[in-house]
Amino acid sequence: MTTVPERLLTRSEEHGPPVSPEPRDRTLPLLSLRDVRIGDTGDGREIVHGVSFDLTPGKAVGIVGESGSGKTLTCRAALGILPAPFEVTGGAVEIDGTDIASLTPARWTALRGSTIGAVFQDPASYLNPSLRIGRQIAEVLRVKKGLGRREARGRVLDLLRAVHLRDPELVHDQYPFELSGGMLQRVLIAAAIAADPRILIADEATTALDVTVQAEILDLLAGLREQAGLALVVVSHDLAVVAQLCDEVLVMRQGEVVEQGPARGVLDDPRHDYTRLLIREHEQYGLEKFLTPQEEA
Ligand SMILES: Nc1ncnc2c1ncn2[C@@H]1O[C@H](COP(=O)(O)OP(=O)(O)OP(=O)(O)O)[C@@H](O)[C@H]1O
Fold first, then answer.
1. CA-to-CA distance for 249 and 266, rounded, in angstroms?
2. What is the number of alpha carbons within 13 Å of residue 177 lying toward its C-beta?
3. How many CB atoms lie within 10 A of CB 162?
4. CA of 255 to the centre of ligand 1 (A)
5. What pTM was computed for the model?
6. Which of 36, 45, 73, 201 to mutate to test the pocket of ligand 1 (most atoms within 8 A of CB)?
7. In this predicted structure, what is the pLDDT of residue 294?
8. Which strand (E) or helix (H) includes residue 151?
9. pLDDT, tens only, 51-91
10. C-alpha span between 170 and 174 (Å, rounded)
11. ipTM of this predicted structure
12. Per-residue pLDDT, 238
């Protein structure tokens, strides 16, 4: 694991207190889902049939399962951004002990980015095509961290370096259309960690990246977890990613959690036929190298 540059770990106290106080206890969940159910209000169907987990600082929960099983809707429910016609129809989501159903729009604005951040697939749709990359990330730093123009520029360059973009000065001044999909994905990751969120939801965030870059980004996230206590929700079809990064895993099929438990336990000794099938299908990704016992240092 690489050491995360000090400047990426520093919360800028000089710019006022954080929006939400530091957790007093690292054993208290930052994010809790309690039997979260999601329905389609158009036809009244329930799409997600109850998801529960607790995420404490520095921990990572992985969600795996086939396409359409409800992984992304679950993440969006946790972020309070379910698209119509979907709605949370049961259960509750708590961020830092607060039920998100009680959050005002202003409180949500304060929480997003600085307490909870997210990276989804399809990075181009999350960036403004007419603004240079550097300006878009700097905007996050100026709004969420109160940084001035010069300070923000320095930190944007640090962030672009941290996500292993070569020639950060050049990327800083480029427009989204000038970058490849993999580069845009890294820009989004940089923007998502810019305001030092305490929770990061990464929904297939490294899927579009080539293997080497993916490994570097996973390393960066592992470093932020370890050193800054970042809590992660990782959605990935790649069980090797989940095995490498996550403490706990949820296996979803057709909106249902069919198996849940410690990642090593579930992936080493799956109880459900569907989990076994997923593991068999993913053997080609080299899952076994993450499951074999670690050698003594
Ligand atoms: N914007 C939308 N409009 C209509 N249906 C949707 C929308 N988003 C999700 N769905 C439907 O809701 C169900 C759950 O979708 P969701 O995106 O959560 O699955 P997923 O497990 O993340 O899949 P994938 O791995 O393909 O991203 C699916 O049946 C999907 O077709």
1. 7
2. 3
3. 23
4. 10
5. 0.87
6. 73
7. 46
8. helix 149-162
9. 999 999 999 999 999 889 999 999 999 999 999 999 999 99
10. 6
11. 0.93
12. 85
- Would you call 21 exposed, middle or buried from its count of C-beta atoms within 10 A (0-12, 13-18, 19+)? exposed
Instruction: Specify the pairing of strand 60-65 against strand 248-253.
Output: parallel
Contact criterion met (CB below 8 Å) for 83 and 18? no
Spans of all domains in the chain = 24-115+199-290, 122-196
Residue 233's beta-bridge partner residues?
Answer: 61, 201
Q: What is the pLDDT of residue 198?
A: 95
Backbone phi, psi, residue 33, to 5°: -110, 130
Report the amino acid identity of residue 2: T
Judged on CB neighbours under 10 Å (0-12, 13-18, 19+), 49 is middle
Ligand 1, pocket residues at CB < 6 Å? 47, 65, 67-73, 83
What integer is the mean pLDDT of 222-240?
90
The tens digit of pLDDT for each residue in 142-160 reads: 998 999 999 999 999 999 9
CA distances from 55 to 90, 93, 103, 130, 214 (A): 20, 11, 20, 37, 23
Ligand 1, atom 1, lies closest to the CA of: 83
- In whole angstroms, give the CA distance from residue 25 to residue 221: 22
Q: How many A from CA of 9 to the centre of ligand 1?
A: 34
pLDDT tens-digit map of 179-200:
988 899 899 999 999 999 999 9
C-alpha 73 – ligand 1 centre gap (Å): 6
For 24-115+199-290, which CATH superfamily applies?
P-loop containing nucleotide triphosphate hydrolases (3.40.50.300)
Using the predicted structure, report yes or no on whether residue 140 has a pLDDT greater than 50. yes
